Amino acid sequence: KVMNTSYFAQNLESLTLKIQNAGCKPILVTSLARRVFTSEHVTSDILGPYSNETINVAAKLKLPQILPLLNDSLTYIAKLGKAQSMLFNWDSDSTNKDTTHLNSLGWKYFGRIVADEVHALVPQLSGYIVPDPALSDAIASGTILPQDL
C-alpha cells in the first residue's frame, strides 16, 4: 500500500511527537533503497520524496540526529551493481522480483549500514554497536565479502 508524502509526513510527525511526549528521544531513519535499476550501476529512486519528508519532519521537530539510510543504501547498491544487489532480495532463491524486502544476507549488509550510521551520528549509542571493520570496508568499497557469495 502506498500513501502520499503529505500523509506520510503527518503520520511520522504525529508518531514522533508521541515518542517525545513519552520522554524518549526519537531518531528518524530515511527509507531503505529499493533495489531497482535502470542499468547495471544506475538506480531508480522512488523513495526520495519520502526521505525528504523524513528530513523535513526531523528539522521541524529539531531532532539532533537523522540516519541517512536512503542515501547510504543507494550509494552502496549503485557501486555494487544490479546483479549483486539482487542477492539481497527476499526471494533471491526463487523469482528474485521482490526488490523491497530483504533476506538474511540483506539484513546483514543493510543492518551494518545502519549500525555504522548510529556509531557515526549518535555517539551516545556507539558503545552498543559491535564493530565489523571487514563488513564496513566491503560496503564502503561497494563489494560483498567473498564468504557471503
UniProtKB/TrEMBL annotation:
SUPFAM superfamilies: SGNH hydrolase. GO terms for molecular function: hydrolase activity. The keyword tRNA processing does not apply. Keywords: Hydrolase. It comes from the Eukaryota. InterPro entries: RhgT-like (IPR037459), SGNH_hydro_sf (IPR036514). The keyword Signal does not apply. Belongs to the 'GDSL' lipolytic enzyme family. This is Acetylesterase. It comes from Rhizoctonia solani.
